Each structure stands twice: as C-alpha cells, then as structure tokens.
Amino acid sequence: MTSDPDSAPGLPAGPVLPSSHAVPRSGAVPRPPGGHRSAAGPDPEPDRRPGAGLDRASDRVPAFDQDADADRLSRARASLRGLAVGDALGSQFFVPAHYPALQSGELPPGPWAWTDDTEMACSVLAVLAAHGRIDQDALAWSFAEHHDFDRGYGPAVNRMLRLIRQEGGDWRELAAGLFNGQGSWGNGAAMRIAPLGAWYAGDPERAAHQAEISAHTTHRHQEAVAGARAVAAATALVAGPAGPGTPDALLGAVLDLVPRSAVHAGIRRARDMLDYDDVATVAAVLGCGRHTSAQDTVPFALWAAVRHLDDYEQAFWTTARAGGDVDTNCAIVGGVVAARPGGEPPTAWTRRTEPLPQWAGVS
Ligand SMILES: [Mg+2]
User: What range does the record give for the signal peptide (predicted)?
Assistant: First the structure.
C-alpha cells in the first residue's frame, strides 16, 4: 500500500489507509535544483546520449527521436499503465465495504485513485525518458517535486521528500540516515521499478544495475536494493524478445541477479512453491507485504506474476486476495505482467483508473 520505509528493521509498520487523493501537481520533467553528485552509491553509468548533461531547456524534454528510445518508452509506458491499474484497484480493497467484491471478483465503482506506488513510478519513467538512464539527482528531485502527501506514503518518506523539496535537503544524507543509519528496507524501491525493467527489456543485468542505482535515492538497506533488482530483472526478462520462458527458469534467472539476502531466499522459496494453487498458503510462507518490507513483498509478488503472465486479470485477483500490502503487491504484479505484449489490463479497468499525471508523459 505504501512505499513505506517505516517498515525498517525492527519497526514493522501498520497499514496506512489511502486517504483522499489530491490532484497531482504538474511540472516539467524533473531536474534537481542544484545537484549533489558525490561518491556515495553505486557508480551511475555515463549518459552517452548526444547533449546529455547539458543544462538547457531542451535537456528536460524526453527524446523520442530514436526508434530504440521509442520502443523502450512504449514498453515502459505499458508497464506503468499496468502498475497504475494494479495499484489503484488494489487500494480499493482497503475499503471495508469492498471486501465482498474482492471475493466475488466484482469491480468497485470508479474512479480508482492511484497511490504513491504510481506517483514514484511516474518519476522513474520521466527520468528515463529525459536522461536515457537513471540520474539519481534528477530522480530524487522528481520524487520530491511531485510528492503528494495524500497518496499514502509512509511517514519517513513523507518527511524525507518534504525536506528535499522545501529545505534543500541532500537525499544522500537523508536516505542513508533513516532508521539509525541502516537505511530503509521498505518495499518502496521495488514497487516503482517494473517500468524500468520494461525499458531495459531483454537486458536484465542492466535493468538490475539501474534499479539498484534508483533504489539508493530512498532505500539504502540491502534488502530494499535486492527487491528492486529482482523486480526490474524479472520485468526485463518478461518483456524481452526471447520471452519469459518457464516460471521456474524465469525465477532462476532473476536469482542470478539478486545478491544473497532474505529477498533472495524468499524468491528461492517462491520458486519451490510454483505448483501450489493455494494462495493463502503461499502468502503465509512467503509473506505478502504485511510488514511492507522488500523481503515480505517481492517474493510473493513475483510468485503471483510469473504464474499468470498471460492473464492480467487472473494475476490481479490472485494477488489481491492474499491481502497484505495489496496496492503495492498488485502494482508490482501489474507492472511485470503488463510489460509483456498482450499483458495489458482489461480496458474497462484502465478506464476506471485515475489518469496518469501529464508530467509523466504517458497519457
Ligand atoms: Mg501505495
């Protein structure tokens, strides 16, 4: 339900119910006010695009002039739409009156407002479109610039993004200082990253690397980083020209790109449970985001996604009925499944979902 860095070590967070959703702020493709490039974090890849790094107005405009970029953008947009529908519909099931609809498979009345998962994913895509890779300063600033307090963010990230936007806070210091210097292991770095995996379709190594870079802007704990790497790699494989392969092989390829961690152990366990049909049992073993941590969210989300890659609708209901952090679980699953041709959500679902903000360049 939230990017909740408040579920950091020893501090499991309770659910944060989505509140009334304000109209998202508009703005140009994000640029940081100053730039805090330092040695912290993994080395970003050099931006090799013509004119990259120039501080000029045209640098803020997404470049659509190359076929490769257009393909990347198209795939990433499809993933983002799937992520947003999963997030928006999933969040509807925190409303007690909608519980019966969850079991019967009925759709709650629209419009369905999306939450922090989608808002942050829009920033990921906007930065990729503008820079051709993850620029950490631009991404952190976009998160801060577009941060809407009413989208269900956890308290720690609310505070961090407010400090960046209003007081010129350095995201490196703020992210590294969370939870007594351990950094957040919340699922927020994973919840927003499927469109990046789609952008790097067929190149899961690069997707995982860029996901790690993106994670560091808010989530410094190794579990959060591992979760982001896993979701990005899975999406890149699903969207790639070779196709996803079998669920078992797909999760195996993801595991090759995830460092030893609780997330890695959880994905191994998820792979061992691919033939289980009882989602409640799987959720009980893997977790389903009740602690809003990467390690109790990503393994289950990938389990649900890879079992239903040909059917967005079934993937959604399977995921949602497990409970837990429903909007984030469904955002991850929706972003992975929709990255594949034919994996888009039903049109009726998309129509009920709140339009994406204009600044994301997706509408
Ligand atoms: Mg959310």
Answer: none
Q: Is residue 322 part of a domain?
A: yes
Is residue 33 one of the residues assigned to a domain?
no
Choice among 24-28, 195-199, 349-353 with the minimum mean pLDDT: 24-28
- Separation of CA 308 and ligand 1 centre (Å): 22
Count how many domains the chain has.
1
pLDDT digits (tens, 9 = 90+) for 34-45: 333 333 334 444
Distance 325 CA to ligand 1 centre (A): 8
69 marked as part of a ligand binding site = no
| CATH code (residue 89) | 1.10.4080.10
Q: What is the pLDDT of residues 323-338, one digit of tens each?
A: 999 999 999 999 999 9
Write down the pLDDT at residue 363: 61
Does residue 193 contact residue 124 with C-beta atoms inside 8 Å? Answer: yes
Per-residue model confidence (pLDDT) at position 69: 78
pTM: 0.84
Q: Is residue 17 one of the residues assigned to a domain?
A: no
Beta-carbon neighbours within 5 Å of ion ligand 1: 1-2, 115-117, 152, 327
Instruction: Answer whether residue 20 is part of any domain.
Output: no
Domain span at residue 230 reads 66-360
> How many angstroms separate the Cα of 225 from the Cα of each of 217, 228, 298?
10, 5, 11
The pLDDT mean for the chain works out to: 85
- Cα 135 to Cα 95, 173, 175, 213: the distances in Å are 37, 17, 16, 8
Cβ(234)–Cβ(302) under 8 Å? yes
